[in-house]
Amino acid sequence: MSNDFTLTQLRYFMAVAEAGSMTAAAQSLSVTQSTVSAAIAQLEHEVGQPLFLRLARRGLELTPAGRRLRSRALGFLEDAGTLLAAVRDEDAELEGEMTVGIFAPLAPFRAPVILQAFERAYPKVHVRFFEADQEGLRLALAQGRCEVALMYDLGVAVDAESQVVETVAPHVIVAADHPGAANPFGEVSLRDLEADPFVLYDVPHSRDYFLALFRQLGLTPRVRHRASGYETVRSFVSRGHGYSILNQRLHHDLTYSGGSVVPLRIVEDLPPIKVVLLFPSLGTPTRRAQAFAAVCRQLYGVDL
Questions:
Q1: pLDDT confidence band for 160 (50 / 70 / 90)
Q2: Which end is more exposed in the chain, N or C (fewer Cβ atoms within 10 Å of the end residue's Cβ)?
């Protein structure tokens, strides 16, 4: 193994890793497939082990070595661009494509707002969001498919490579004609709702968090309905099928079913969910990822 690889080989490698095939990568790079194949073969020779598995009818898949290279190559290529700009005495303006992972239930609440602010600050960076569950985001980070991920601190180990963006307290929602909706202080005790039918927001890790809130108080909810859609839960509640507990609050009370819900503060002291930015454990965060974190700090006022 030697160290005689080129930046072009790395860029071609990243394109193939993204596209999953030599042909698609060559098209995106506007070069021939043979040019890409030769670059990858030479890079594998320099590394001393294969970077891709050739799978029949499934294209190319990264080997463990390929995943490690991908996770580190993002920052390496970005640093190379910064170096060239410094030599030319130019401002190293952020540019290029960046994939941001985001927990699917968070996406409609946070992605449009963050994207708008980020594009205003960094118009030459093209952001693409990858929606997945918590485990899918963890894998995407480990495989280098995301530069940063916005997610809950549920179900994954949040270590030194994470930054807290926001804490979101749980709240109850009830139908507009529910007796609790008339509470003059806009609050309710979970103990007063234990016998009522409960509509559980049933997605991995979140369901465990909500059920743990009851266990913390020595209560057992009467789960009547389970739904994996945020708006489905709200619609069931608005039509009188039970109450629910959620974290993210909408700016309106209307639901898809035409009814409305009333949010109520929970009087018991219960743990909030943390919204965090998680970075790949290998290498340092890219400048684009750091800029994304800075925009989140400006929007949510959290000292990251």
A1: very low
A2: N
Which tokens in the block code for residue 36? Answer: 């890409």
Superfamily of domain 93-164+274-300: Periplasmic binding protein-like II (3.40.190.10)
Is the CATH number of domain 170-271 3.90.1150.10? no
Q: Which residue has the tokens 């060559």?
A: 26
> Could you give the CA distance from residue 297 to residue 283 in angstroms, rounded to a whole number?
22
Q: Is-above-0.70 flag for pTM?
A: no
Task: For tokens 């498919």, name the residue.
Answer: 145
The 10 Å Cβ neighbour count of residue 157 is: 10
Which residues, 6+ apart, have CB-to-CB distance to 73 below 8 Å? 10, 13, 14, 144
For the chain, which residues make up each domain, given as ranges? 7-66, 93-164+274-300, 170-271
Cα–Cα distance for residue pair 279/160, rounded to 1 Å = 9
The CA angle 208-259-199, to the nearest 5 degrees, is: 20
Percent of the chain beyond pLDDT 90? 42
Residue 190 Cα distances to 172, 179, 268, 278, angstroms:
8, 14, 8, 32
Task: Please tell me the predicted confidence (pLDDT) of residue 1.
Answer: 46
Residue listed under structure tokens 């219960």: 270
Establish whether domains 93-164+274-300 and 170-271 are of one fold. Answer: yes
Q: Which residue has the higher pLDDT, 119 or 134?
A: 119
> For position 143, what pLDDT does the model report?
75
